[in-house]
Write a structure and sequence with these properties.
This protein is of the alpha/beta class. It folds into two domains: 242 residues, Glycoside hydrolase/deacetylase (TIM Barrel, Alpha-Beta Barrel); 62 residues, no CATH class. 41% of the residues lie in helices and 13% in strands. The protein has eleven helices and ten strands. Strands 1, 2, 3, 4 and 7 form a five-stranded parallel β-sheet that branches. The protein has a three-stranded parallel β-sheet with strand order 8-9-10, with helices on both faces. Strands 5-6 form a two-stranded antiparallel ribbon. It is globular. The protein starts with 7 loop residues before the first helix and ends in a 12-residue tail after the last helix. Bound molecules: zinc ion (ZN). Zinc ion (ZN) binds next to strand 3.
Length: 328
């Protein structure tokens, strides 16, 4: 890496972590790591890109386990460049493709699992993507479902169709959306049933030092469901994982994760009451000593080039936002 970057990043690190940027924690958010570039999921890093990113973390930053990082943030003993790696949802490639890289560099990570999709399940947005990838026709006519008629002659058109459908149905009631997606599904032929982990893969991650966190059962937007159902979603995912791993599960990620939109303060209080030690949102930023440990912000540089990734991660330590300050 030093030969790749001719010392540039190494020289920038102490400058960035000058006295003004002490006690800051950057928590990265990933979903998947794919074996090679997948044009239908172009935002997901390949193994090669993820490898370069983890190598940067190991060489220039201080990767820490999430709970340890939160505790050290609160006790004021965080090292400069403190960073945590997290994954949301529970994709199988976290175990098959990300874990070997994490082990190679000794980078701790936390995987937040939505337990309802384990062992052959599929998230509704993935069903839409896979249908649009597989649909053998040049046009997909979904007007009978009150959607549009989508041309599918190129990857771009297929991606446009995915965007359009996801936008149109993402705010639907979950039951209604599931019923609709089930009807869309018949246009896609045989869809993959191994996108998400099996129980054994979750156990394998844990055995290999990856922390497991809860992410609800069915991935609902907590603010759009009743309080009792929300509590059950949070609690049952925790209980399922604890039974599976025979170990406490003490961190949580809010589905979609935007403060005040996807979850409210009542859900934050619920997570604390259910015995979690910390929870992460998707609000962009870094944590400081005043951050609420039940709404930690996250951020992931989107650059494919390792140098840009490193530079943007460094710059993110400036990005302190008072929105999620501790409330108690
Ligand atoms: Zn999620």
């Amino acid at each position: 890496m030093k030969d790749l970057f001719p010392g540039l990043v190494a020289r920038m690190v102490p400058l960035v972590f000058s006295a003004h940027r002490k006690q800051r924690l950057s928590i990265l958010i990933y979903h998947r790591v794919v074996p090679q570039r997948d044009e239908m999921r172009a935002g997901e890093p390949t193994v090669e890109e993820f490898d370069a990113q983890m190598r940067i973390l190991r060489e220039y930053f201080h990767p820490l386990p999430l709970v340890e990082a939160v505790e050290r943030l609160q006790s004021g003993s965080l090292p400069d460049g403190a960073v945590c790696v997290t994954f949301d949802d529970g994709y199988a490639d976290n175990e098959t493709h990300a874990m070997p890289v994490l082990k190679k560099y000794g980078v701790p990570a936390t995987v937040f699992v939505s337990t309802g999709f384990l062992n052959g399940g599929r998230m509704w947005n993935d069903t839409v993507i896979e249908v649009l990838r597989n649909c053998p026709d040049e046009v997909l006519d979904l007007r009978e479902l009150n959607l549009d008629c989508y041309p599918l002659r190129s990857t771009e058109q297929r991606l446009d169709a995915v965007d359009s459908i996801l936008q149109q149905i993402k705010h639907f009631d979950p039951q209604e959306r599931l019923a609709l997606v089930t009807r869309i599904q018949k246009h896609g032929g045989k869809l993959p049933d191994d996108l998400m982990m099996t129980d054994a893969q979750v156990q394998s991650l844990a055995r290999n030092g990856v922390s497991i966190g809860a992410h609800t059962v069915n991935h609902p937007i907590l603010s759009s469901i009743g309080g009792d159902i929300a509590r059950r979603e949070v609690q049952e995912s925790k209980q399922y994982l604890e039974a599976l791993l025979q170990a406490p599960v003490d961190v949580f990620a809010y589905p979609n994760g935007r403060p005040d939109l996807d979850y409210k303060m009542e859900h934050r209080d619920m997570v604390r009451e259910l015995g979690f030690k910390a929870a992460v949102s998707t609000h962009w930023g870094v944590s400081t000593t005043t951050s609420d440990r039940y709404q930690l912000p996250r951020f992931t540089p989107w650059d494919r080039h390792p140098l840009k990734f490193a530079a943007r991660l460094l710059a993110s330590y400036r990005n302190v936002d008072p929105l999620l300050a501790a409330v108690d």
